[in-house]
Write a structure and sequence with these properties.
The protein contains 7 helices and 15 strands. It is an alpha+beta fold.
Length: about 270
């Protein structure tokens, strides 16, 4: 049994509702944030787990047999539940992408929800509650922001265009990263999903991420690709499909860029 466009549209509708509910709750909780240290580089708040619960409950109302991979599980690990129906659909969820911003009262964060089939994202929603920005995509159709089509464009790296760089480089900053900072208007929003959707919108010509997990990139990837961008690892290799049954929280090195910029960036990184 394969998914038809009607099925994907219904999944998208569910994802949009779930993202908006979670985003509204997160905004309500910003004045009452209680942050805890998850590990050496990450924080978690009570709102992360609450928002994740809201999302999963909403999805289960419509799709009780679908599976889940989500950031907030027990003892700092991810939450995972395998699908029970056919075809096996996995929902990949980051309830608050940008928790460090959120925990410090900076309203730059997103709710990221994707549905994956055969290891590939086929529906993606990234919602930025503070600006009421709803980025959406269904594979095979067009990427949208609040119902209007978006495109990655063809701008090149220059002093007038922006490139997003992650904040988790290990050791010294690579020479190529320093070069990109000098050549462009360097940006870091503190949320991988937002980097990806702004590549999709053409606001960023490229974004490079060091250690994102599946829930950070799944929704943003389908939105960016549908908008005409290219999303690969740093060597230019495809990231998807992923063996979701065996996924255990591994990180990726991700490069997202418009089609004109992507090949040159791969060359710069791998030279």
């Amino acid at each position: 049994m394969s998914l038809e466009q009607k099925d994907l549209s219904e999944i998208l509708e569910t994802a949009v509702v779930a993202a908006r509910l979670a985003g509204q709750h997160a905004m309500e909780q910003m004045s009452y944030v209680k942050a805890m240290k998850k590990n050496e580089t990450e924080l978690v708040t009570q709102a992360d787990t609450q928002c994740q619960r809201i999302i999963i409950q909403r999805i289960r109302e419509t799709y009780p047999d679908h599976g889940f991979i989500a950031e907030e599980g027990e003892k700092g690990r991810m939450f995972k539940r395998a699908p029970m129906g056919e075809p096996p659909i996995w929902w990949v969820i980051d309830p608050i992408d940008g928790t460090n911003n959120f925990a410090h009262g900076i309203p730059v964060f997103t709710v990221s929800i994707a549905a994956l089939s055969e290891g590939e994202p086929v529906v993606g929603v990234v919602f930025q509650p503070a600006t009421e920005s709803m980025f959406t995509a269904v594979k095979g159709e067009e990427a949208q922001l609040n119902g209007r089509r978006i495109s990655a464009g063809e701008e090149e790296i220059s002093p007038l265009t922006s490139v997003a760089l992650d904040s988790h480089f290990e050791g010294n900053l690579p020479a190529w990263a320093s070069d990109l900072i000098r050549q462009s208007r360097f940006r870091n929003f503190g949320t991988t999903a937002l980097h990806l959707v702004y590549v999709a919108r053409g606001g960023l010509v490229a974004a490079l991420m060091c250690t994102p997990k599946l829930w950070d990139i799944a929704a943003g990837t389908v939105i960016a690709q549908t908008a005409g961008a290219v999303v690969t690892d740093w060597n230019g290799r495809e990231i998807f499909p992923i063996d979701l049954d065996n996924y255990d929280g591994q990180a990726f090195r991700v490069l997202a860029a418009n089609r004109k910029t992507h090949p040159g960036l791969v060359e710069i990184i791998t030279r």
